[in-house]
Design brief:
625 residues; six-stranded antiparallel β-sheet; 7% helix
Length: 625
């Protein structure tokens, strides 16, 4: 209805164009004021309190100073509550709750300069958070030039910006483009879309900005700035993040990124500032092209908007709609979270307050949770005024045993002794695995040993796997046939020894059989597959041969855990125990019972030399504890 009314007035101006033009402007201002009052009243509730931010008397491309704001807001609910930096007003949200934000963009310069857009949105704001507020100012022209010809340039109006401290936009109302024309042009008004409008006669070269960037220049009419990018041209409006100054030359853009102009003729109009800047107007042989209106932005809910509303400077009104007085968890109880191994970060539970706002819970533990058993998680909900908590159980119960990595373990054979084993592995669903077995190393017992491997996880679940291992030892037996000594083990390397001469190797005697010519004690040393073993010593004389093994000489038990008894005919003159390197080692012997205590020695194979009055006995003793 308002636009139709203006059209009627416009067609009545035939007799007095100047009078009617002023009448139109006056009527539009009155209607706009009525609309503003109505919008403010309609937004009030029993909780409402409104905060009105203005340009504080600043004009042109630069915003108000701290002094101007302090003076303008004195005696209001913004008294001493606003800090100013570079014309941008910083305001701390007084309390947590729902708020409406209304923003009006600034008008472009000219009697029919593009009007600012009106944007309305509702937000849940946190008490103590800081908002940045830039109130768009009307575009102008450079009044310092004495010639009126410079007044033909028309700057774009500044957009009004409300953002967080980190420049995230909440509401932005686009400013209008400058217009020397004698009628309203829709594309000159602040736009309701995010994109800025193109300047008149300049759909390509004076295109509006997109994505928060500035509008393009057309001839010498420059683009309005956006949230993120400056307007094109020497007097393009600065982006909000760069300070939001209007462009300045012969035509001055309004504070809020309004675009200026830089030519003294042709009545060109700069683009309006906004979320994305409007493009400059291109003369192109036609009189009075207006700049494009700046784009708008709304991140709120319950949105509303109007194009072509604001005449003069812009305005920002923030109204408290509801104060949270209660906060209730959205779920009466939280379900237990269960797993065997790990619980990752779940979807945060929520709580709602009486204003309809929802907040996410914050856990008092760090996810993922891997500790077995019960972990009680406390979720805290805070809407800025109210705080409640809710607990949730996380239960981890690992009941799965480790699984061997090999389906079966191969039979394995060893020679001489088993000093080490190849350890198998297993995989657990949750944790690492400890591997143990049922045998003690080294192993000297020949034949089959059944090894049972046990795989245990961190909570005691276990599985087992068996393996057959076989030990082959050298056959160190010797038989006597006449005067000939023969080793019973075949396929070995042989070296016959003189036992009575310090186990001296007999030169050239390397066969399996040996016929001595001298009366003495003899033994054979056997070597095979890396194993070395020595037979017992056998006494040989020129008239008879006796196998000492037939005499009374025994070691019991053998293998031994460290203590063993020597059974022998006659009195023992001395006992000597020799390790594998040929060194005599210490031991203790009970002279009454002939019990030897060698528990201090390491496991292994030792040579035992026992001397009586007329004989020397040599045997091997195996210690396995």
């Amino acid at each position: 209805m308002n636009n139709g009314f203006f059209v009627v007035l416009y067609f009545l101006y035939v007799d007095n164009q100047i009078f009617l033009t002023k009448t139109i402007v006056m009527m539009k201002s009155v209607l706009n004021l009525c609309f503003l009052v109505f919008a403010i009243i309609a937004s009030l509730s029993v909780y409402s309190q409104s905060y009105t931010f203005s340009s504080a008397g600043a004009t042109g491309n630069i915003g108000p100073t701290q002094f101007m704001v302090d003076t303008a807001y004195a005696g209001t609910n913004l008294d001493s509550a606003v800090d100013v930096l570079g014309g941008i007003q910083y305001w701390v949200v007084p309390s947590t709750g729902n708020y409406s934000i209304e923003a009006y963009g600034g008008q472009g310069y000219g009697d029919f300069g593009g009007r600012g857009a009106y944007i309305y949105g509702e937000f849940f704001l946190i008490g103590g958070d800081t908002l940045k507020i830039l109130v768009g100012q009307k575009g102008g022209h450079y009044l310092d030039y004495p010639s009126t010809t410079y007044n033909h340039q028309y700057g774009g109006g500044g957009g009004s910006f409300i953002t967080t401290l980190s420049n995230n936009p909440l509401v932005i109302a686009g400013g209008g483009g400058g217009n020397h024309g004698t009628s309203w042009v829709t594309s000159c008004d602040g736009q309701l879309t995010n994109n800025g409008a193109a300047g008149a006669n300049a759909s390509t070269i004076g295109a509006g900005g997109t994505g928060g960037m500035g509008g393009l220049q057309a001839s010498s009419a420059d683009g309005g700035g956006g949230l993120l990018g400056n307007g094109d041209g020497l007097s393009g409006g600065q982006a909000f993040i760069n300070g939001g100054l209007g462009g300045i030359d012969e035509g001055t853009g309004g504070f809020g990124a309004g675009g200026g102009t830089s030519s003294w003729n042709n009545y060109r109009g700069g683009g309006g500032g906004g979320y994305s800047g409007g493009g400059g107007g291109n003369n192109s042989g036609n009189c009075c092209p207006c700049g494009g209106g700046g784009g708008s932005y709304n991140a709120g809910i319950n949105r509303d908007s109007l194009a072509g509303v604001q005449i003069g400077d812009g305005l920002v009104v923030i109204t408290s709609l509801c104060t949270p007085i209660s906060l209730v968890a959205d779920s009466a109880s939280l379900p237990d979270l269960t797993d065997e191994c790990m619980v990752s970060m779940p979807v945060s539970p929520t709580a709602s307050n009486n204003c309809g706002s929802t907040v996410n819970g914050v856990a008092d533990v760090v996810f993922p949770i891997t500790n077995q058993g019960l972990t009680v998680v406390t979720w805290t909900f805070n809407d800025g005024l109210n705080t409640i908590t809710q607990t949730q159980n996380v239960i981890l119960s690992d009941i799965t045993a480790p699984v061997p990595d090999s389906v079966s373990l191969p039979d394995t054979s060893y020679w001489c002794s088993i000093d080490s084993l190849i350890w198998p592995t297993a995989t657990d669903n949750c944790s690492g695995v400890t591997v143990t077995n049922n045998v003690s190393l080294p192993i000297f017992t020949s034949g089959l040993t059944l090894v049972t491997w046990t795989f245990t996880d961190s909570v005691g679940n276990f599985s087992t796997q068996n393996q057959n291992i076989y030990l082959d030892v050298l056959d160190n037996g010797v038989i006597i046939n006449g005067n000939t000594l023969s080793a019973t083990g075949t396929g070995y390397q042989y070296q016959w020894l003189d036992c009575g001469n310090g186990m001296l190797p007999l030169s050239g005697e390397n066969s399996q059989s040996f016929t001595p010519s001298d009366t003495a004690y003899y033994a054979v040393q056997l070597t095979h597959n890396g194993c070395v073993d020595t037979s017992i010593c056998i006494s040989v004389n020129s008239t008879s041969i006796s196998d000492l093994s037939n005499e009374v000489f025994m070691i019991y038990p053998n293998p031994s855990s460290g203590k063993f008894i020597i059974l022998i005919n006659g009195e023992i003159e001395y006992i000597d125990i020799i390790d594998i390197s040929g060194r005599s080692v210490q031991y203790y012997v009970n002279p009454v019972s002939n019990e030897v205590d060698a528990t201090a020695l390491e496991n292994g194979i030792y040579t035992l030399r026992v001397k009586t009055a007329d004989k020397l006995y040599i045997r091997q003793i195996i210690l396995s504890k």
